[in-house]
Amino acid sequence: MKLSAKLLATAAAFGLMAGTASAEEMRIALVVKALGIGFFEAAAKGAEEAAQELGDVEVIYTGPTDTTAEGQIEVINSLIAQKVDAIAISANDTDALVPTLQKAMKRGITVISWDSGVAPEGRQMHLNPSSNPLIGNMIIKLAADNLPEGGDVAVLSATTTSTNQNIWIDEMKKVMPNYPGINLVATVYGDDLADKSYREAQGLMQSYPDLDAIIAPTSVGIVAAAQAVADAGKIGQVNVTGLGLPSEMAGAIESGASKSFAIWNPIDLGYAATMIAYNLAKGDDEAAPGATIGMGRLGEVTLDETNSGAMADPFVYDSSNIEEFKSIF
Fold this sequence. Notes:
Strand order of the largest sheet: 2-1-3-4-5-13
Order of helices and strands: HEHEHEHEEHEHEHEHEHEHEEEEH
Structural class: alpha/beta
Number of helices: 11
Largest sheet: 6 strands, parallel
Low-confidence stretches: 1-22
Number of strands: 14
CATH architecture of the largest domain: 3-Layer(aba) Sandwich
Radius of gyration: 21 Å
Shape: elongated
């Protein structure tokens, strides 16, 4: 069964989809923050890939029209009324959805969160796109892979108090001995402001004339740094990498200011969430600390003490795939 996202949202709002699946099909609802967002439409594509692979699954792709907890609560209540088998949700609010999702679980519905998590008491497990150690390793690897003889790199971060940025940089430093010859010369902060990030990137190139790469684990900083490199005429000399969005970095890949960068793959994320929901709802796997749950072609996820797990390394985008993803997110 295939319905458009808009039709699904309308049907969910009025509870019209109850009983539409065959008795043999498992119905898994992929609930997103809001409809009409490319990232989540790509996740829905991955969910459909999982359903086709499994063969006995109907994916209900749905969500509110705006990114509110109230909108998601309305959608969840409709799914409870439809007696779906599983709900996989990217949450608009960590805590506000908990009572409604608890109600779903009491009715025998498998509940997981993915991408944006729900508090542990409101779900059976949470799927993070990646993990801090995986992200830290990836951002230095992206620079080192293009510097086989080693070289000088600098970090352009967001704010000095940005928790996730600081953790990723710390994790990067832990694994730097694995990349001999790579020398971290400076860490600067652009405060996630485009103009300040641009100036900081300019300052790095002026202070370190032999600089080989700028690593920006922030989507604002990476775009600004790529522009600064292009404006300085240093394309081919200074490679900009880190974490960014394909839609914003396509020009930098095309110009050569960036050879590659990384961020999560939403198609894989939707696929993995659907596979996990299926395996939990079937009873083939159990969500418990230390447990592993199958994710189809993506392998297995291992849960920590909060029943959370990381899907995979951040996905690398370069000239080979940027065209495919730049229109998605």
